[in-house]
């Protein structure tokens, strides 16, 4: 579509690159000087409704003079979240574009009402925004606890509307709620800072409190008995938060029976609607940009990003000290353990870490689980300091950790760690006790389908292909994945197995007629870790030894998997393969595998979606590997889906390993 949108608003002009991205469907955005003639090809003049009256009048006059249509722009429903202390210059992530006339909104409402999928998406969005209190201004973390006010609070939104109309709205609020505390809510600017309007200037003389915007806007609105608004989109945010709204103007969300409308409705007002239908209709006018790369997005992605940031805030509030971590790994840990609600420090030893926490007044001690020093748990317990064990998640990266490729997923476990069956872990507790709701199970089923269709695994290394397994017709095709023999999961979960050689021998003894395919672990093949079986020895026990193909390419060509504790067994379950375990991995003992060992703590019988929901949706934490921003599993899935080719081109040799190490060291030294 040709042309562009002229931007004369100072607020939007300061964010012209963001506005240009958001208005891509309208032809992009260009700065507009009101004293000059419009540039050739201009299609619209933007009327930013958060601007003051004088600016809006100038823009209207300019559009009339040059016979250009006005395009209404309103602040979007979801603003960017600060993710680190002191962060400034947040991107503009959403704008409402239009509707230009009431008929446009009526048509959108009719279309949304007739589309069950859009309605369901709106219901999910409303539930997420209300549960997590996400809205327009998210520039500060939520308060750790909300103190109930002495009296009910009624908010009056301070907008750039005629002063007399705003004063009348304030008088009405006071008259109708004599028992309440009337507070003035200034508009949050695009930077989250308050923009005082006519009521803020009256507040001191009237003895009224002006909200300081020291909490997210949704938190402020959710605590109100009622919100009085002229026409600002904060009224829609209040509706989403379940708060009654009185309108003195005619915003897009008024006139549908959801608000107390004091202005005369236009003739032929539409029939009443419910909130999901309204949100679905207004979403058609909302333009969103991904917080991860600025690409076109939707409100669902913005909400999921906000939820991930809030989850990290909760988990990292206060002080965290990580001990015994190599310098190059620090940059990888920061996005998971550093946040706007807490502070991350590092210490060489557990003792030093505990001393630092005592000086800082407490917090939590974090250790890399596989390198936890003996006695660390006892030291932390004696000091009254919680211990947090950190380990790679199950969708880690496009490349090996031993090649210094940073992780997109980590687990933070307060009870134990998932690969150690000697003690409970947060994952085991979750799988044993969690009530998996239908929506979560449905999401897990969708995740299974996507992972299988895209061939995603933990490391996503190796080549694809078909016809790799050369088994004669009728033979059971058995995949035996090798592991790193000094890995903690082997030491804890299969200590007397005899390593990879013992596993191969056990698999051959269990299935003497099977066509056994042995797949060495990629870390071992790369020469980074222990566990190599001499090739001639492996070939005496296995019919094929395959090291250059990805494990994802092998799954369609085998019938079953025999493993000690490898994640390959879990990945095989996703693909409907029969799995036998000789150790006690996290996915064993739930009725989905044939197990040669048992865990007396695991009593529950799980469905595969429940196992996946616990293991991939609820237990790990995810970070976008490009932007280092908190995210959920779906963002990582998209990144890994597009990363395989690049990783294959870079390779896993010493040159690639060195490049990854240099990058990780640089980020660690720069504190990023």
The gist of it:
The protein has 672 residues and is an alpha/beta fold.
Protein architecture, described:
This is Capsular biosynthesis protein. It holds the Pfam family Capsule_synth. This protein is of the alpha/beta class and 672 residues long. It is built from 25 helices and 27 strands. The protein folds into three domains: 116-284, 3-Layer(aba) Sandwich (Rossmann fold), CATH 3.40.50; 306-433 and 652-670, no CATH class; 453-647, Rossmann fold. The strands form four sheets. The chain has a seven-stranded mixed sheet with strand order 2-1-3-4-5-13-14. The longest helix has 18 residues, at 299-316. The two termini are 40 Å apart. Mean pLDDT is 90; it is low at 644-670.
Strand order of the largest sheet: 2-1-3-4-5-13-14
Determine the strand fraction and express it as a percent band.
Answer: 15-25%
Largest sheet properties: 7 strands, mixed
CATH fold descriptor of the largest domain: Rossmann fold
Number of strands: 27
Low-confidence stretches: 644-670
Secondary-structure-based class equals alpha/beta
Protein name: Capsular biosynthesis protein
Pfam families: Capsule_synth
């Amino acid at each position: 579509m040709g042309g562009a949108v002229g931007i004369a608003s100072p607020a939007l002009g300061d964010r012209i690159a963001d506005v240009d991205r958001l208005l891509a469907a309208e032809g992009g955005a260009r700065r507009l000087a009101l004293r000059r003639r419009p540039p050739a090809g201009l299609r619209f003049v933007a009327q930013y409704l958060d601007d003051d009256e004088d600016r809006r009048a100038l823009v209207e006059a300019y559009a009339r003079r040059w016979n250009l249509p006005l395009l209404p722009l309103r602040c979007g429903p979801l603003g960017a979240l600060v993710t680190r202390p002191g962060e400034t210059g947040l991107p503009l992530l959403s704008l409402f574009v239009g509707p230009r006339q009431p008929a446009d909104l009526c048509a959108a409402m009719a279309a949304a009402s007739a589309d069950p999928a859009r309605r369901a998406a709106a219901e999910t969005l409303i539930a997420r925004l209300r549960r997590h209190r996400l809205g327009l201004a998210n520039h500060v973390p939520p308060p750790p606890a909300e103190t109930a006010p002495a009296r009910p609070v009624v908010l009056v939104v301070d907008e750039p509307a005629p002063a007399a109309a705003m004063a009348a709205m304030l008088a009405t609020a006071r008259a109708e709620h004599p028992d309440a505390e009337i507070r003035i809510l200034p508009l949050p600017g695009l930077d989250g800072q308050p923009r005082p309007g006519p009521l803020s200037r009256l507040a001191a003389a009237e003895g009224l409190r002006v909200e300081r915007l020291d909490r997210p806007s949704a938190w402020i609105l959710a605590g109100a008995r009622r919100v009085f608004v002229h026409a600002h989109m904060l009224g829609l945010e209040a509706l989403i938060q379940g708060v009654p709204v009185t309108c003195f103007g005619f915003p897009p969300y008024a006139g549908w029976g959801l608000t107390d409308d004091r202005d005369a409705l236009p003739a032929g007002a539409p029939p009443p609607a419910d909130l999901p239908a309204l949100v679905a209709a207004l979403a058609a006018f909302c333009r969103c940009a991904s917080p991860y790369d600025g690409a076109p997005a939707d409100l669902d992605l913005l909400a999921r990003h906000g939820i991930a940031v809030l989850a990290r805030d909760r988990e990292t509030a206060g002080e965290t000290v990580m001990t015994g971590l190599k310098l190059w790994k620090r940059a990888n840990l920061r996005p998971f353990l550093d946040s706007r609600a807490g502070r991350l420090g590092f210490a060489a030893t557990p003792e030093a870490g505990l001393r630092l926490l005592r000086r800082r007044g407490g917090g939590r001690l974090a250790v890399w689980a596989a390198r936890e020093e003996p006695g660390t748990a006892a030291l932390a317990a004696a000091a009254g300091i919680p211990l947090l064990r950190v380990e790679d998640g199950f969708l880690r990266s496009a490349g090996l950790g031993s090649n210094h490729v940073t992780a997109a997923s980590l687990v933070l476990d307060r009870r134990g760690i998932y690969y150690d069956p000697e003690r409970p872990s947060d994952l085991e507790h979750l799988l044993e006790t969690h009530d998996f709701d239908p929506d979560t199970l449905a999401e897990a089923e969708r995740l299974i389908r996507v992972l299988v269709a895209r061939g995603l695994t933990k490391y996503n290394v190796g080549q694809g292909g078909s016809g790799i397994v050369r088994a004669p017709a009728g033979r059971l095709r058995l995949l035996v994945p090798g592991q790193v023999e000094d890995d903690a999961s082997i030491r804890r979960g299969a200590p007397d197995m005899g390593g990879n050689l013992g596993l191969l021998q056990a698999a051959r003894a269990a299935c003497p007629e099977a066509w056994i395919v042995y797949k060495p672990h990629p870390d071992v093949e790369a020469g980074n870790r222990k566990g190599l079986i001499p090739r001639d020895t492996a070939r005496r026990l296995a019919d094929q030894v395959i090291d250059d193909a990805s494990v994802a390419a092998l799954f369609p060509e085998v019938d079953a998997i025999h493993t000690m504790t490898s994640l390959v067994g879990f990945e095989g379950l996703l693909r409907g393969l029969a799995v036998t375990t000789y150790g006690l991995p996290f996915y064993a003992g739930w009725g989905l595998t044939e197990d040669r060992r048992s865990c007396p703590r695991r009593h529950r019988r799980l469905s595969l979606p429940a196992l996946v929901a616990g293991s991939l949706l609820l237990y790990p934490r995810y970070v976008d590997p490009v932007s280092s921003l908190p995210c959920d599993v779906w963002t990582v899935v998209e990144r890994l889906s597009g990363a395989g080719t690049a990783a294959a081109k870079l390779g896993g040799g010493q040159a690639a390993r060195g490049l990854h190490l240099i990058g990780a060291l640089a980020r660690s030294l720069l504190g990023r």
